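Duplicate of earlier report; DUF2621 family protein input re-posted below.
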Amino acid sequence: MWFILFWCIVLVALFGIGGFFMFRKFLKVFPKADGKSTLDWEEHYVESSLHLWNDEAKLLLNELVSPVPELFRPVAKQKIAGKIGEIALAEKAKKIDFDLIIRGYIQATPKRDHKFLRKKLNSMEVDLAPYEHLF
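Output:
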């Protein structure tokens, strides 16, 4: 009886945790006041800036998202690429360069992950002084 009760509690907890993360994803799909959702804007910025990306920029982006667990890597990559595209289009950049990638990477990363972000950038020997105001 205790075994069954234990597993019922574990299943309810796991369903609750899974539902929480599914609900967060669901909220990103809701349209904002302008009629587009957060995910729509990310996709728009990626598509609009696709011609600005070269092979070196894509390799750098792949290197930056390498610490992210493989299951979540495509989502992180999409979010970071969307932010980089947004910055590039706002600044009317001719191409995606190192500076744009680092700034977009910092801005797209949640504050709680900035410790890991700094660690990754330090391992890549990137000078963080010009980007300190973004943290």
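The radius of gyration is 19 Å.

Merging into the original ticket.
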